[in-house]
Structure formats: structure tokens, C-alpha cells
TrEMBL record, chains A, B:
PROSITE patterns: HTH_MARR_2. Signal peptide: none annotated. InterPro entries: HTH_MarR-typ, MarR/SlyA-like, WH-like_DNA-bd_sf, WH_DNA-bd_sf. Residues 23-155 form the HTH marR-type domain. This is MarR family transcriptional regulator. Gene3D superfamilies: Winged helix-like DNA-binding domain superfamily/Winged helix DNA-binding domain (1.10.10.10). It comes from Streptomyces mirabilis.
DNA sequence: TATTGTTATACTCTATAACTATA
DNA sequence: TATAGTTATAGAGTATAACAATA
């Protein structure tokens, strides 16, 4: 708090390379890796007219049948209110259709159209190619360890947290 | 599009465990790992009255001196307009002080107060303990590979992207 | 003219509340 | 009374534009 300071040492030119204290932080690394992948994913799916959330909906619908909107929302871990807009967008593009469940007329069964199935196939190929490019700078063993680690942290640990 | 459908197979009870198609997706895994860590980080830092962004500012300030607001913003990869509110909050808590640069009177030199330095020390210990707990379910080798992979993807690859 | 700090604005994402129709 | 779909609203976070002071 005294006025004595070293006489203004030169500051290195401002670059976007983070200084030492940041690049070893797990929070910094995870956040920026996620953002980088999100951008790559958006770019890879843009030609197909969908985004990552919409692709996830299509994939869930293809894996299980029949599913209502809340059930899809539960699989994806999103709120049922956000699912409405998601299904709206997919329906506008003709990729899914809403259908009242005969067994429970409160439920909207969401089902893939043939166009939706075709879009899903092409989107999955685009996603796989994107993930391969994204992991390309890693050697095979490190890439496998990354996926294994994330799966343990996200999938296995959830059981404990519940 | 015909009405012929299998007679409504039973739907498994809705749980939050993602179905097969999601847990192998890099995007899903990275996003949820990041969210999980962000929650753990917030909980670990809450007793100190700061959040992860504020801790990052303190750490950058401790590593380089002197730094103006834009320079800190550049190190963190955030906009200079968001840096204003960040420094406001830290200054209100007495952790940093603004000081006009004599060399360039447009610049605000941001410097740690003794309280800020103390807060940084305790926050860094809390963060390290939190990261250890977060990585605890991984064996040592996998945890090291995770950090190494993220560092390559985030730090090394940026040079190429620029 | 360009840069720094600042404010105001807009836009995205998400969470909450409330309404309806069904059960 | 509870659930499914829907809408509206509010909040956090972030990006953009503009302005004053300074270079």
C-alpha cells in the first residue's frame, strides 16, 4: 500500500494466449474445450439445417419408440418447456410429427418422419467426422482416455449424486 | 406413414440416465462435465464470496504486474465491457483497486490489495481441493491423460486456429 | 484516428409460474 | 390431485453500439 513500486516493468504484448495460471486450471480447460467443440459441431451441422440439440432429439427418437415430449426431455435432461420449441422447429422442417397418444390423450407422441430419419443419418455421419477431426491432434491412447474419463465423470458419477 | 405400428411396447420408466445414443457423444460428455465442474467450483468458492471468473482475475493480477483492464480482459479471453462489472465487484469487496496509469492516463491499472492476495491464496487452495475431489473417481493415469488431452485441444490448437 | 473505460441495449439461454386439457 | 403440453415472464450471461477522455 506504500507508493514504492518497481518503475513499471515492460508489459509483454497483449495476446490471447492465456498466461501460466490459467492453462493449468481444469475449469478453464473444460470450458474452452466445450466451447471449441460446440463451434465445430454447429459448423458441421449447419449444412443440414439443424443444431446439436435437434440432432440429440432425433437420435433419442430413433433409439426408443414411442416417446412423448416429456419423455424425450427426460432423456436429454432438458426442461419440458424448452422441449416445446425444439419440437416446433423440427416439425416445421418436417423432420418429426406430433401425434396424440391414444392411450393417454395428454401426451404428444413425437415420431421421426422419413425425412427426419434421413437427416439423422447424414447428421450422425457429419458429427462423427467432426469428432474425429476434433480429436485428431491427440494420439489414439490419449483420445481414448479422454472419452473414458469424461464418461466416468458424467455417467458413472451421476448415480452417486442421485 | 402407414397406421401399422407395433402395439405400443412398454416405455421404461423415465429416468435421467441418458440412453445409449447420448452417452457416447463427445458434445454431451464435455458439456455435462463442464457443468458439473462449474457447480462444484461455485460451491467451493462461495464461502470466500467470489466466483470462478473473479478468481481468474485475481490469479492473473498476481502473475503479472502492472495490468490494465483491457490487458486482464485479453488474458481471460473476455470482452472489455464485461471486465468493468468484474472489477466493480472485486473493488466493492476491497480485493482490488483501480489506479490511473501515469504513463497512459486512459488506462486503469488494476492491482491486488492485501485482502485480495489473501483471498486469492485461500481460493486457490479451495480450488485445488475441489479439482482433486472432482477427479477422484479417475485413476491417476486417466486423470493425467484427461488434463493432457484438454491442454492439447485448448492451448496447442489455438495457435493453429489463429 | 485509434484506444480505454464506461454505459446502454439487445439477444440468447434457461428457469419459473400459470393456464388447459386430460387422467 | 397430478401430469402433459403450452405460453408468458423473468433472470443470467454475453455481444454490440455509442460516448467521453486520452493518445
Amino acid at each position: 500500500m506504500t507508493g514504492e513500486r518497481p518503475p513499471v516493468p515492460p508489459v509483454p504484448p497483449a495476446r490471447h494466449v492465456p498466461p501460466v495460471p490459467l492453462e493449468s486450471r481444469l475449469g478453464y480447460l473444460l470450458k474452452h474445450a466445450q466451447q471449441r467443440l460446440a463451434r465445430a459441431s454447429a459448423a458441421a451441422l449447419a449444412p443440414l439445417g439443424i443444431d446439436g440439440h435437434e440432432l440429440a432429439v432425433l437420435a433419442v427418437l430413433a433409439a426408443e419408440y414411442p416417446l412423448s415430449q416429456v419423455e424425450v426431455a427426460g432423456r436429454l435432461g432438458v426442461d419440458r418447456t424448452t422441449m416445446v420449441a425444439l419440437v416446433d422447429g423440427l416439425e416445421d422442417q418436417g423432420l418429426v410429427e406430433r401425434r396424440r397418444s391414444p392411450a393417454d390423450r395428454r401426451k404428444n407422441i413425437v415420431e421421426l418422419t422419413p425425412e427426419g430419419r434421413d437427416c439423422l443419418d447424414r447428421a450422425e455421419r457429419a458429427r462423427l467426422a467432426m469428432e474425429r477431426r476434433f480429436l485428431d491432434p491427440l494420439d489414439e491412447e490419449t483420445a481414448a482416455a479422454l472419452v473414458r474419463a469424461l464418461r466416468i465423470l458424467v455417467v458413472e458419477e451421476r448415480r452417486i449424486a442421485e
